[in-house]
Amino acid sequence: MKSLTLLTAAALAVASPVAKRETGGILLCTGANATGTCNYATYPLETCIDLVAPFANNTNTFAPDGEPFACYPYLMPCGGLCTSPEGCTLGAVSFYYPHKFNLSDVGWANWIQSFECHPVTTM
Questions:
Q1: Does residue 95 belong to any structural domain of this protein?
Q2: pLDDT (tens digit, 0 to 9) for every residue of the chain, 123 residues total?
Q3: 46 alpha carbon, distance to own chain's centre
Q4: Is 66 in contact with 95 (CB distance < 8 Å)?
Q5: Does 96 reside within a domain?
Q6: How far is CA 71 from the centre of its chain?
């Protein structure tokens, strides 16, 4: 009887659908190549997110998941006024961005204060 119960439980576990991962997952780390203090979280799309310590002005890894979305890191907090003549965003960072694990390569490791992610149709 015990074997039948275990067999039934195993069959039900196999038949359970796999939960789809939510869009908007990002790995943030203070060091390059996912080192230092790290945090992985899913963030809402179309919403500006202010970074807090230890990541505000201290994010060297900004690595979005592989779902169809891209994020725009900003120099200022959400709702802030951009006064930089060069612009206030790094540009679109997606799963395919080559420097997502080392923002020092593009001089942005000490600049991100906020970000906003948006769905994309092509990556």
A1: yes
A2: 454 444 444 444 455 555 556 789 999 999 999 999 999 999 999 999 999 999 999 999 999 999 999 999 999 999 999 988 888 999 999 999 999 999 999 999 999 999 999 999 875
A3: 13
A4: yes
A5: yes
A6: 8
Whether 90 is in a domain gets the answer yes
The one-letter amino acid code at 104 reads S
Under 8 Å between Cβ of 30 and 60: yes
Q: How many domains does the chain have?
A: 1
CA distances from 108 to 8, 24, 102 (A): 53, 21, 9
How many Å is the Cα radius of gyration of the chain?
A: 19
Both tokens of 111, joined, read: 């600049």
DSSP readout, 62-85? EEE-SSSEEEEEESS-TTPPP--T
Flag whether 30 is in a domain: no
User: For residue 120, what are its two tokens?
Assistant: 């994309």
CB 49 within 8 A of CB 116: yes
